[in-house]
Each structure stands twice: as C-alpha cells, then as structure tokens.
What does this fold into?
Amino acid sequence: MRKLRWTALAVLLVGACSQEAADKAADDGATGDTVGAETAAPQNAAAQGAAKGADDSGKKGAKGAVHPPLDPYPSTYEPYASDVTLITGATILTGAGERIDNGSILLEGGKITAIGAASAVDVPAGANTIDAAGKWVTPGVIDIHSHLGDYPSPLTNSTSDGNEATAPNTAHVWAEHSVWPQDAGFTRALAGGITSLQVLPGSANLFGGRSVVLKNVPSRTVQGMKFPGAPYGLKMACGENPKRVYGDKGGPGTRMGNVAGYRAAWIEAAGYKKQWDDYWKSYEAWAEKDDAKDEDAKEAPDAPSRDLKLETLAGVLGGDIRVNMHCYRADEMVQVLDIAREFGYKVSAFHHAIEAYKVADYLAENGVCAAMWADWWGFKLEAYDAVSENAALVDAQANSCAIIHSDSATGIQRLNQEAAKAMAAGWRIGLEIAPEDAIAWITANPAKSMGVLDQTGTLEAGKMADVVIWNGNPFSVYAKAEQVFIDGALMYDRSDPKRSPRMDFEIGQQNNDNTGGAGQ
It folds into this structure.
C-alpha cells in the first residue's frame, strides 16, 4: 500500500470530512484569509495610534500615517472539519482543578459545548458517541518550551536553525521563520497528546528572538499552524550560555556583562518606544487640526525609522510580547525580576529554572511561572543544584504557576510521564498532589503563561475542543494517548493507521511502515 503524505492526509484525519475541508487541507496556508494588522488588538499607546486609519503594509496610510505592521505574518490556521462527538463514561480531569468520575464531554463545531456528569449531558441527535468507560480524558497537552521545526528530525547542520548565534542581541529574528512543518517530531508529539506548543529560539544569546505558538496540525506552511491570536514571546537567556558563546567574541564574558547587556538594550528600546509614542501623539494632534480647506495646514510629522530589533523589545515594554527567560540559578532569577521592575516589563516564565524551589515564594508573589524538567540536571554547573521535588515545591506556594516542559523532541512525546515523575517526587516529601491538580502543569499553566488560557488549556464550555482520551490514568507509566482531538477534529487515533501519519520526508525510507506517530 502506498505510504500516505502527511500534508495530504487531512481527509483521513478528520474522518467523514467534506470535500471542501479536503481541499482546504491540500491548500492550507495558500488560501486562508489574511487578517490585516489593523484588526489586531494593540495594547500600548503607540500601537493604538498606529491602528487608526493606517494600512498593514508599513507604508503611509490615511493622511500620511506610518504604521509598522503589528502582525505581518498572520495565522492562516483553520480548524479541520469535525463531527458532533460525545465522549462519555470517562474520568475527566478538566485542568481547572476538577475531577469528574463517569463524566461526559460534548464537542460541537470545534468547541466544547457541554461537560459534566454523564447523566447531566444531553446527547444531540446524530452525535458520534465514544464509550470511554475505564478511560481518562484531559485537555490537550501543551509544551511551553519546544524547538520542533527549528531543530527538526533529521537534524543536521543544514537543518539546525534554532540559534542565531551571531550577536548577543538578536531580538530581530523570529523562530517561525525557521520552522519546517515537515519535522517528524510534530507527529510523534501528536501521539503523546500534544495539541499546542511554543517554539522558541535557542539560548545562545541575551536576547534570542521571538517565539511562536503553534497548533499541532498538518500544514504545508508555518502560517497554517500558527495559533490564532496567540501573543508573541521573546526568548532571553541568562547565566552560562551567553558568556560562554560570546566571551571571546567581544562579550559579554561574565554575568555582570550579561546584566549590563540587558540594561543597555532596554534603555535603547525605551528610547525607541518613546520616539514612536511621541510620533503618534504629534500625529494625532496634527490629524485633529488638519483641514483640507486650510491652506496653512502643516505637513504630517515624520515617523521614526524602523528597527526590527527594537520593535520586538518595545513590544515587551508595551505589554504585547511575553518574556520567556532561560535561567537556572535562583539568585539570577531574582536579579532578572529586579531588571524587569527597573524597566517596567513582566517576565512570563523562567524556563528550566533548576533552582526555582529556592525562590518559589518570590516567584509566586511576582506572578511568574516556572517551566521545569522533572529530573534533568548536572549537565553543566548551573544545572547542578537540582532536586526532583522542584516542581512540587513551586506548586505548593499560594498563587503559584508550575509547568513541566520538554526542550526535547523525545521528551515532548511523554510530558504526561514527566509530570508524573514530578508529582511522585512531591508525594515522597509529603506533598500529596492530586491528578486533577498536576494535570494543570502540562495544560492550563502553560496556556496561562503563553497567553492563550482564554481559548485552550482547560475543558470548559466555549473553549477549543482540544481533548485527549487516554487508555488509563495519564500519570501511569503505562498510559498512552488513544485519541487526540484538535478543535474537535480527530487528528490522531492509535488504533487507526490512517490517523497515525508519516511526514513527507519519511516516505520511502527504510523500516518505515504506515503507522506513523503511533510508533507501532
């Protein structure tokens, strides 16, 4: 039997898919509607002014206004066709701290429309009913720290595109421009229940560039995978990496050099933001006074020159871009928070955060998430002082935000088991973490940090129908994701080779059968 193409497999992935949906699958990324930058919801004053009467091309718009595009590469993602589906009889972990035994969840039109006890959820006529007795249901798993697509499989020098290690500050680069949608890691992650992920640049630089949030769906283009409306992130790094990479290339060569580099960049970015804020104040004042009949009307003010690096940093200062900080040591995390306070921005999450347990109370007080491994440690000195109870100790704080992440093409396939290891470590020291709470480490909390919790991360009516059916307790070493729904469409089925796809690059390779992500 001819092996199936991942990009052409959408017809099989969604079951009784319409021809219209099949055509969409084949042309994904080429025919999707483009959302103009002027339709975005800018938060800072400069962006709000830019949205008034300006086009999305960066050229002069109405009355001469200059508008740098807020989203020059918008998402073209559209959900795949889906059936009305009722999953019933399962143990449901909502991700919002609730466990429902013998529960049901109804998926309609790509959304969750009802969830609760099986007896309380009505079954619409014609619904596809899945008897999930003895099985568990959770929100789709979300990995906040991935390099899939940027460090793809196969990984060679020619495909290694995650680190722009050419200067300490490369805030002008965007991870999405390196994403290879044919990375086989996406299908393997799908088999592990991953429905969304954040792809970050590497950690060589003080400022590594922008991240991108993706839906884990087949597409020929990265735009076809981009999570609609998800905020951009900025990858930053502290500690050993930047000083090791640049110590003999002009610096920084020390931790104090790292901090000086951050501060100098934020000072420059603050000046750049002020230039644009002042421009828009002047422009708005001019526009209010301007009258086509007034021969004495002055010309519109000149806009500042654009700088891609500073646009990203100004976006952080304006609250539009979220900071993801690669940081291991507790003392450096506190220093970074001091810098953030100095320049008026917020750190969304510390990534890796080996020593987060030492400052767990401080992180909780400042509303900062810690994205951690379950037990990676010791591969360099700043990763040495680790404890397996790290995540549990962070989670134990009031108002905490503990996250288990992968940073690995293999670890992303088993984030449920990584969370289980961290949960077990907590139990060993008396922190009895319930499954309904621990599931948030790989669902709700990453969604919160990434700015998409209003759309996904928990099983609640009105949210995206990103759902995983497990063959048992997802925190068991024997747990496997049996079926994975993204926006209500069945994208993976462990028992059905037609929904267990291979990537184009794998076709014709030795020892590749037709079972794809299931690995069977």
